[in-house]
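ok trying this again, last paste got cut off
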Amino acid sequence: MFITKYLPSWFNFNSTTANKKHTKNKRHTNRSNNLLEKTYKYNLSRAVISTSDINLIKVEISGNPESKIFKNEKDLDNYFYSLRKTIDIFKIYDQRKNNSTPTYKYNDIAWEGISNFTKKDSLYYAIASENLGILQINDLNKKKKYYLKKNTKWLFFWSFEKIDQSSAFQTVYNKKKPQESWRKIYAFSLIALSLSPALNEAASSISKRSEK
């Protein structure tokens, strides 16, 4: 009888607790997504460059069934840059060279052209947000995204490491929190300055009345 009497209350308590936990997790997820929206996002695709049968430059982009032929490197770069709305970074495998290490081409909209990098860390450093130090790379071929965090070892030595979404959120949050605090202090300072003339005028008026 005792157990039957209190079972509904126990279930209601657990249901309420679960709902609160779900709401809290949803808010945390939304907050995390909002903060990560501030990170820089780049679409990456692989491309293979080789020599065609008639000694021209041949390029094949992963996911694109058609290969393209170009007369020179300038025409090739112009083609890459024409794809800037969908692809930001090309991971290049150049079969014309004996070196199998990939190089990188970046669609640099600020300079309206292609920027070339022999090392991926140099590329990441060039495009990383100086304020947040977090990059989001969308791998179009593997259909997945990952985050990169900039680590500064010494003054001119740095590297990037892959981190999960939770770590990316925490890094962005830690960097944004001091900025938000300074913005609030600045806003309150402006309000105080704007109110100063009115306060001085009121104090002067009260002083004159007391003298009478």
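PB: full thing came through this time. The radius of gyration is 29 Å.
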